[in-house]
Amino acid sequence: MKKIIIAIDGFSSCGKSTLAKALAKALNYGFVDSGAMYRAVTLYLLEHKISIQDLRGVEKALASIQIRFQAGAKGNRTYLNGQDVEDKIRTMEVSEKVSPVAAIPIVRRAMVRQQQEMGAEKGIVMDGRDIGTVVFPEAELKIFVTAAPAVRAQRRFLELQRKGHTVAIEEVRKNLEERDHIDSTRADSPLRQAEDALVLDNTKLTPDQQLQVALDWANERMEAQVL
Ligand code: CDP
């Protein structure tokens, strides 16, 4: 069967990555968490004390940043300049800074170029905010994931707790709200539902149930390619 591109977008912590990962596994496709790339850039800027007002500094930083993904025993890991930063990029410190970084056009340009290269051969599931609108506007399947805000905050809170982070649910909720606001109101590639995206509200669905819905859609789209 012909390979397709599956673009998954949606608000913060709505289960996009969980769905994208499961879908990629079921289809034997590649998986790219584009948010991890913006998080890795943010980590680099924080560690090198580069302010986002210093656009020349940001530009220089982008030239020395190399991001790659590697699947291992501990799942998909994000590498920044050869170092496994998967745990570091998921901290609240990075979550609090990532949206302003992702709103910078030169940052977006650099990330989008790499994302498009990763999908050049198709057979990929990518999740983010602008995948169906900007990165792959021609994607054969676009899914826009939504979930009730309280459910999203609760899921992220439990995820952070499981990883051993001490954080108040109120802090998580505020961060999601803030990121959603910045992400959907920024001038460059704001988060929005592509006109041809299918909406998947997973508020009341288990991960397996949401996977089944998406798999049915993917199979339909893949079959349509053969005809
Ligand atoms: O916390 P969650 O998993 O929902 O977010 P993420 O996918 O890790 O993305 C972190 C942040 O990166 C978002 O809040 C956006 O500011 C930015 N992002 C973006 O601008 N464009 C993308 N394609 C993906 C993420």
Series of H and E elements: EHEHHEEEHHEHEHHEH
Largest sheet: 5 strands, parallel
- Beta-strand residue fraction: 15-25%
Query: What's the tally of helices?
Result: 9
Tally of strands: 8
Strand order of the largest sheet: 2-6-1-7-8
CATH class: Alpha Beta
In terms of quaternary structure, the protein is: single chain
CATH superfamily: P-loop containing nucleotide triphosphate hydrolases
Task: Give the tally of structural domains.
Answer: 1
Shape: globular
Q: What is the correct CATH architecture? A: 3-Layer(aba) Sandwich
How large is the radius of gyration? 17 Å
Q: Into which percent range does the helicity of residues fall?
A: 40-55%
Structural class: alpha/beta
**Poorly predicted residue ranges:** none
Mean pLDDT: 96
CATH overall fold name? Rossmann fold
Ligand inventory reads:
cytidine-5'-diphosphate
What do you see in this structure?
The protein is α/β, with parallel strands linked by helices and 227 residues long. It has one domain (5-226): Rossmann fold, CATH 3.40.50.300. It contains nine helices and eight strands. The protein has helices spanning 16-27, 34-47, 55-63, 92-102, 105-118, 131-135, 149-162, 169-185, 207-226; strands at 5-10, 30-33, 67-72, 75-80, 83-84, 124-128, 141-146, 198-201. A five-stranded parallel sheet has the order 2-6-1-7-8. A three-stranded antiparallel sheet has the order 3-4-5, covered by helices on one side. A hairpin with a 2-residue loop joins β3 and β4 (75-80). Cytidine-5'-diphosphate is lined by residues 12-13, 17, 34-35, 38-39, 98-99, 102, 128-131, 179, 183. Cytidine-5'-diphosphate binds next to α2, α4 and α8.
